[in-house]
Amino acid sequence: MRTAYTADQIRGAEHTLMARLPEGTLMQRAAAGLAAVCADLLGHVYGRRVVLLVGSGDNGGDALYAGQRLARRGARVGAVLAGSKTHEAGLRALLEAGGRVVGADEIGAADLILDGLVGIGASGALREPYARLAEAANAAPGRVVAVDVPSGVDASSGRVEGAAVRAAVTVTMGAYKTGLLVDPGAEFAGRVELVDIGLGAYVPDPDVVALGHEDVARLLPRPGAESDKYRRGVLGVAAGSHLYTGAAVLAVGGALRAGAGMVRYAGAEEPVAQVRAHWPEAVITVLDRPSIDEVGRVQAWVLGPGLGTGERAHDLAASVLASDVPVLIDADGLTIVAKDRELLRRTAPVLLTPHAGELARLTGAERADIEAARLEHVRAAAAELGVTVLLKGSTTLIAGPSGQARVNVTGSSWLATGGTGDVLSGVAGALLAQGLSCYDAAACGAYVHGLAGRLAADGAPLAAADVATAVPAAIRAVTSGSAYGEKLGER
Ligand SMILES: NC(=O)C1=CN([C@@H]2O[C@H](COP(=O)(O)OP(=O)(O)OC[C@H]3O[C@@H](n4cnc5c(N)ncnc54)[C@H](OP(=O)(O)O)[C@@H]3O)[C@@H](O)[C@H]2O)[C@@H](O)CC1
Ligand SMILES: Nc1ncnc2c1ncn2[C@@H]1O[C@H](COP(=O)(O)OP(=O)(O)O)[C@@H](O)[C@H]1O
Ligand SMILES: [K+]
């Protein structure tokens, strides 16, 4: 499990730890870790050109001391001093080790550029000359390593207002910052390496949590010797319409591959024919009227993919939501409940799985605002609606009604293709039917779905059905202890 924190939380912990240590200890630990990652990236250090972008705060101090260490190993290190002041002891250390102060024109010739402009002490968009230096680093051919946080990315939220450094690697000190895991910040951070500076014992409860293989393996249900198909969990799927038959096929496929004991599909004749043709395993009810009264007992429902949004779909949604089992609502189901919020008044749990556009419909916020501050918006929606919300997109976030939040770190941009969301609804729905809470089903579902996406893509395009097919292999990767897909920033 990875835990991530806001800038305020980190500052508080650093304050406590610093009071117990001789002055400068933490910065030396940070610089040592930073220099080690840089040396690794450079391969051999002697003679390589390193440019440090140095801001006025301790982030610049980290860069200067790391530069000192690289200079001692023979690197040609130049510091671009961007701030109104500079960490004096750090600059002295660099100069004594043979480093120099240089102009911004040297950025283009560097093998490695160390971004020490601002870290967790930043506020608002990058000012000049920092913004210009960030752009110059992005345009240069050298590898860019961000110190603690890419400058221009808000460490607490992942917001990017204006220019920001686009790093190949971010070396972060003491603990992960939320903004390194949530887009757009995560995109700018690249691969994230954590340097242990002894902060672990002093951090409070995390702002967000990212599950790893071990956590998901622990949560995923496994059939016991006594299991039968009913006890493993039966999922009902109310999806598809005469216009959209594929969504039903994909949702049922995701559910069957994710371990439901049985899937009961309920729909109109056209999607029924398609589901029958693809999945003889599913138990079918042809719905003559918009009601689930004739469908046998289930432990959870998936409601919405391809359902349509007319009166009939509305009435079917009302019938599903009147049941006493957990319901995952996706796609058209979300449009229906956005128009008729009363449908969400129920005692059994609800999991909503919108993308940003659907969340905008639900809450009235602007889509662009949601994309810019995903965590804030998913938390607010979960609290306002009193349900669990999984926000899909380049980083998937899950929030519960009491403010708890998880971020999914698996996934691949190859998943950005029609129908993969339908597969996710089936996967997460199957986990709900197997007894996981909405919060766990959402997080484990997103994790397995993201990993399945990576396996299915393997560097080339995928179709949504391939993701469903890859779900068992993804579960195997999670439960076998393989390290596949565990590194941060590999997409
Ligand atoms: N504390 C510790 O023990 C440890 C800390 N560590 C390291 O320290 C870092 C935090 O250092 P920090 O607190 O000095 O703040 P930091 O991020 O360098 O910058 C603040 C300065 O930047 C400026 N500035 C702000 N916003 C700006 C903007 N938009 N655009 C332009 N400029 C802007 C502003 O300066 P001014 O405007 O006054 O010139 C402000 O004073 C942390 O990320 C980690 O790397 C590690 O070594 C581990 C031990
Ligand atoms: N850029 C991206 N990187 C990673 N995952 C993505 C990206 N874009 C979309 N996804 C994932 O792909 C799926 C798309 O779902 P959705 O938007 O509902 O599509 P559809 O309705 O066509 O099924 C979600 O799981 C989402 O998180
Ligand atoms: K930085």
From TrEMBL:
Keyword Cell membrane annotated:
no
Spell out the Pfam families in the cross-references. Answer: Carb_kinase (PF01256), YjeF_N (PF03853)
Which intervals hold domain YjeF N-terminal? 10-205
- State whether keyword ATP-binding applies: yes
- Alphabetically list the UniProt keywords: ATP-binding, Isomerase, Lyase, Metal-binding, Multifunctional enzyme, NAD, NADP, Nucleotide-binding, Potassium
Q: Which cofactor does it need?
A: Mg(2+); K(+)
* Residues the record lists as binding K(+): 59, 115, 151
| Molecular function terms, GO-annotated | ADP-dependent NAD(P)H-hydrate dehydratase activity; ATP binding; metal ion binding; NAD(P)HX epimerase activity
Which SUPFAM superfamilies does this one have? Answer: Ribokinase-like, YjeF N-terminal domain-like
Give me the residues that bind AMP, please.
392-396, 421
Q: Entry cofactor note text?
A: Binds 1 potassium ion per subunit.
Q: Gene3D superfamilies in the record, alphabetically?
A: 3.40.1190.20, YjeF N-terminal domain (3.40.50.10260)
Report the EC code(s) recorded for this entry. 4.2.1.136, 5.1.99.6
Write out the residues that bind (6S)-NADPHX.
58-62, 119-125, 130, 148, 247, 306, 355, 422
Q: Which family does the record claim for this protein?
A: In the C-terminal section; belongs to the NnrD/CARKD family. Belongs to the NnrE/AIBP family.
The entry describes its oligomerization and partners as: Homotetramer.
Protein name, as recorded = Bifunctional NAD(P)H-hydrate repair enzyme
Q: Which gene encodes it?
A: nnrD
